[in-house]
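This section describes the prediction task in plain terms. A model, or a person checking by hand, is given the sequence of a single protein chain and must write out its three-dimensional structure as a string of tokens. No templates, partner chains or ligands are provided. The sample shown here is typical of the held-out split.
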Amino acid sequence: MNPDAPVSVVVGTLATSGSVATLTGLYGAFKGLSQPGLLAGTAAFNSGVAGAVFFSVREYVVSPLLLSSITSEQYERRRREIEARHLEKETGKSVSPAREHLSWSEMRVHKLLDTTVSGAFTGGLLNAWKRGRGGILPGTVTGSIVCALLQVGYNELSVQRLKYVSRRLKQSQDASKNSPVLVAQETKVPSSLPDSDESDSEPKKTVADRIISLFGLSKVPDDQYLEKLRQERDAYVRRIHRLEAQIEEEKRSKPSAVS
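The expected answer:
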């Protein structure tokens, strides 16, 4: 089992409950309902229960079963990552996985099967609890489709953000190569021109940034996000190398122990 499963369940449940409550509250306020806060609270509770069931089923039941039975490249890679994390917790040392380059298609199908199966089970269970046996099949179909679409959308957002960050990084690198020319041009500007206002140089917050800040969140700059991804990649690389070295050492020690 993934040692990060408890964190994934808690974070997923809170994210589901918070996002559904926010959307419901905004919808109630937009429609002019009398008690949008109560509506948002009810939606938060219901979605929190559904999210807790879904993420618990996925992290503790479905994913372990699929990891132990499917031999595709995606699940082989995930098994190596989980083994590296277990070894890191046991030894207290950083274990780096081997360097693996994921394609965009592999990133787009990440945990798609796990989410679809878990969504089908959760939808059937909750709909049966609400409507009886007759709600099992509709709930299963609806839950699998909705959860699969949400996972595809989440994966696609991750892919598009990585592409965007890569483009921005490339543009910044190209601009840095031309920086001496820009400096030479700036020295030719007459000193009589007035200095630009300092407030103009500060980036203005968009409406989305202001809404995010209301919930105590902040937008992560692209360069910091890219640096975080690089650090995670390097950490995985180190983990796999150490795991492979330990496996080789164990293989060498077994013949000597038998003799």
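For orientation: Residues 181-202 have pLDDT under 50 and may be disordered.
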